[in-house]
Design brief:
The structure holds two protein chains of two kinds. Chain A is of the alpha/beta class. Chain A contains nine helices and 13 strands. Chain A has one domain: Aldolase class I (TIM Barrel, Alpha-Beta Barrel), CATH 3.20.20. Helices cover about 30% and strands about 20% of the residues of chain A. Chain B folds into two domains: about 90 residues, Translation factors (Elongation Factor Tu (Ef-tu), domain 3), CATH 2.40.30.10; about 150 residues, Rossmann fold. The two termini of chain B are about 30 Å apart. Classes of the chains: A alpha/beta, B alpha/beta. At the A-B interface, strand 4, strand 5 and helix 8 of A face strand 13 of B.
Chain lengths: ~300, ~240
């Protein structure tokens, strides 16, 4: 059997499979179905400094081979995540978890990351820079290289664990933003977050989603994700986590060939709760088919 | 929660837009009336959540209204298998009913009350049922509830059958110990105001996963944020916060 191990920013993963933030809660819904310790790790629900209810409903819309969500970062806030969610998670997951952090100011990001950096269960900090900057006119941090770098620097200054910056695809030049984060000290880059989308109900002529627009994810965005992972991996020397529409073991191999060290699975978890388990079980067979002995050998191996 | 394959054994039209599908398969994860299942359909990304109308050890009955692509596709299936997640949601708690509960359903909110009525009658309770529809042609399951031994009243908005008006018109002067209901939100709100007892109200929301992972169907309640798919769809009257 082939070797599935990869090294993500200094921590070895049994395999590169990581359920993406927002599609796996704090793990325990899935732990009812299978032993989640088989995962490389997982990225927990996006956490902010203060508790958030998020957007009004409906928050979800069906699309061809995908979905739109506008949940709006509903989470109990970092203190409750630390005092309630993580102890509960410890009962079903004994590996290091990836802490996904969002914020609405540079100070928010630094505060939340500093709190989570002190938690032993946390292995990596994944910093989602797709949120609007409330002090910067509401524009997303992730659409401006300088703002993304400022968040990265502020988080790096108060933390010791690997910081992975999660990028938005809704930009003109994702490479410039990835490079700015690398220069600001990021230990890794993960991409892509959801693509901005919208659906309209023909009967009511209103947007399907209460927030009007939301993040498009699922199989349909896979080619865009592969392209962006490739572009970023070519330009930076830090590890890249690829995500966006990954739904099977073959997609994982393709993402890794494009330059991903590890691969996150998002929307597919919502429609097939066993998706990650199935992918992990299928990987050795697919590796054999394509004559891959060590999965880590193929990272960035596209010719 | 359980994911398994079910075999379609029957799929019949009850009214112009309402269908009943019977399936055989592993129903062991279904533990209460008022829970729902989430169905994977060919060519559609998200599963389709449908309430459980009835179940026993190895069969499942769902009643659904054709409103979009998913339910339209379901209406055309006469045989085959479906990938279904079962045992979703909290369901109705029958312990709180008292001796004479009233069950109130509106339109496609009627189906989950059927297994609930069955359970309550099996517990020796005297069950009243109010079924609300727009017009006579839309009525279904009146006879099925009567066959269980329920005292059934039907209301139609246009007065073409039964009591003219809304389900709340049938509630006037009625004696009951508890209220169970399912239907459109304006109906639930009207029952909430008209009812003089405690009760359980089943809500609907667009869902992503149906099992608590995505936070797509959250609502605010007196006791905090809840997921309609996980801590719901049934909320107790005292915890409901109306936003409309």
């Amino acid at each position: 059997m082939g070797n599935l191990k990869v090294n993500l920013c200094g921590i070895e993963l049994d395999n590169p499979i990581i359920p993406a933030s927002g599609t796996f809660g704090f793990g325990y819904e899935f732990a009812e179905l299978y032993d989640i310790n088989i995962l490389g790790t997982f990225s927990f629900k996006g956490t902010t400094k203060d508790p958030r209810f998020g957007n009004p409903t409906p928050r979800i819309a069906e699309c061809s081979s995908g979905m739109i969500n506008a949940v709006g970062l509903q989470n109990p806030g970092v203190e409750k995540v630390i005092s309630q969610e993580l102890p509960k998670l410890a009962k079903c997951f004994n590996k290091k978890v990836m802490a996904n952090v969002s914020g609405f100011s540079v100070e928010d990001y630094a505060y939340t990351c500093e709190r989570l950096d002190k938690i032993d269960q946390v292995g990596w900090l994944e910093v989602n820079v797709s949120c609007p900057n409330v002090h910067g006119g509401g524009m997303s941090f992730g659409t401006d290289p300088a703002a993304a770098a400022e968040v990265t620097r502020a988080v790096k200054a108060v933390t010791t664990k690997p910081v992975i910056v999660k990028l938005s695809p809704n930009v003109t030049d994702i490479v410039a933003i990835a490079k700015a984060c690398e220069e600001a000290g990021a230990d890794g880059i993960s991409l892509i977050n959801t693509m901005l989308g919208m659906r309209i109900d023909l009967r009511t002529r209103k947007p399907v989603i209460a927030n009007k627009m939301g993040g498009f994810s699922g199989k349909a965005i896979f080619p865009v994700a592969v392209r962006m992972v490739y572009q970023v991996a070519q330009a930076v020397s830090i590890p890249v986590i690829g995500m966006g529409g990954v739904s099977c073991a073959e997609d994982v191999i393709e993402m890794m060939l494009a330059g991903a060290t590890a691969v996150e699975i998002g929307a597919q978890n919502l429609v097939d709760p066993y998706a990650c388990k199935t992918i992990i079980e299928d990987l050795p067979k697919v590796m054999e088919k394509y004559r891959i002995e060590n999965l880590s050998d193929i990272i960035g191996g596209v010719k | 929660m359980k994911q398994s394959l079910f075999q379609i054994t029957e799929n019949v039209k009850l009214t112009e837009s309402i269908y009943r599908m019977r399936l055989s398969g592993d129903t062991s994860a279904i533990t209460a009336p008022g829970t729902f299942v989430n169905i994977k359909l060919e060519g559609l990304f998200l599963r389709r959540p449908i309430s459980v109308n009835d179940y026993d050890d190895n069969s499942l009955t769902i009643i659904y209204k054709v409103v979009g692509k998913g339910t339209e596709q379901m209406s055309k299936m006469q045989s085959g298998t479906l990938d279904i997640l079962t045992g979703l949601g909290n369901g109705y708690n029958t312990d709180l009913s008292g001796e004479n509960p009233v069950l109130i359903g509106g339109g496609v909110g009627v189906p989950p009350l059927y297994n609930l009525a069955k359970k309550l009658i099996a517990q020796g309770k005297s069950v009243s049922v109010i079924l609300g529809f727009n017009t006579k042609a839309e009525i279904f399951y009146e006879e099925e509830f009567k066959a269980l031994g329920c005292n059934v009243q039907v209301t139609t908005v246009d007065g073409s059958y039964g009591i003219k008006g809304f389900v709340t018109n049938a509630m006037e002067g009625m004696n009951y110990t508890y209220t169970y209901c399912c239907g459109p939100e304006p109906m639930l709100k009207a029952i909430f105001k008209a009812s003089n007892t405690s009760g359980q109200y089943s809500f609907e929301e667009r869902m992503g996963c149906g099992f608590g992972a995505c936070m797509g169907c959250s609502c605010k309640t007196v006791t905090g944020y809840k997921r309609i798919c996980k801590e719901g769809p049934v909320l107790e009257k005292e915890e409901i916060l109306w936003e409309i």
